[in-house]
Amino acid sequence: MDKRERLDKIIASQGLASRSEVKAMVRRGEVEVNGDVVKDSGVKVSYSDNICINGAPLFQRKFTYIMLNKPTGVVSATNDKRDKTVVDILPEEFKRKNLFPAGRLDKDTTGFCLVTDDGDFAHRILSPARHVTKTYIAVLSRPIDYELGKKAFLDGVVLEDGTVLLSAILIQLEAGDKPVYKVVIKEGKYHQVRRMFASLGSHVEQLKRIAIGGLMLDEALEEGEARLLTEKELESIVENDERF
Ligand code: URA
Q1: Which domains does the chain have, with CATH numbers?
Q2: What is the pLDDT of residue 87?
Q3: 63 Cα–ligand 1 center, Å
Q4: Does the C-beta of 109 come closer than 6 Å to ligand 1?
Q5: Percent of the chain having pLDDT more than 90?
Q6: Ligand 1 centre from 190 Cα, in Å?
């Protein structure tokens, strides 16, 4: 299936111009679809159409970068015998060879999963040495001592197996029997956030990743929905990541 969208929406989604700027370009005859000048910015086109702006092809990226709002029950892998993978649930128009999730979210973790075919970029944002942050919202099964937790996270939690984690930030968003915390970490060890709260004697009931580096999950994306990242967004993952 090749999903069709409005021309102005597809062009704007690439981060080149706003919807109203695109409409003006179309009116001026600057946009061609499959070799023909189009004058209606509402015409339905697909990502496989050859769209040119002032003669330059719109899609000229070597690699693909997709923001997926991962639902629960889906595994962060490229194929799996039992479960659906993050690649399986992508819209058909984004599917291509060699896509993989840059980093793993647990099957029951939701939120920002970056799916790409750019191995170097994935390595850059995942390498603990690069310190690209990952931000999570965790709902706990029982309260923790917040002051103690803040300090433990900042000092670097020592897991049961002796692993010493890098410094992390803990921020309480809601108190109560099932408190809600924001956690910012700089690495991605197996079940890291769950194990960090386990070290404080609590249990994570719900976990959602809301940001990678300086890029927040788009709130307009429902669980299971995905969209391409714009050039600016891609850069902001690394460039705006100055929190600690
Ligand atoms: N930490 C976890 O424990 N699980 C995830 O899915 C991501 C980070």
Answers
A1: 4-57 (3.10.290.10), 65-128+221-229 (3.30.70.580), 134-212 (3.30.70.1560)
A2: 97
A3: 26
A4: yes
A5: 69
A6: 7
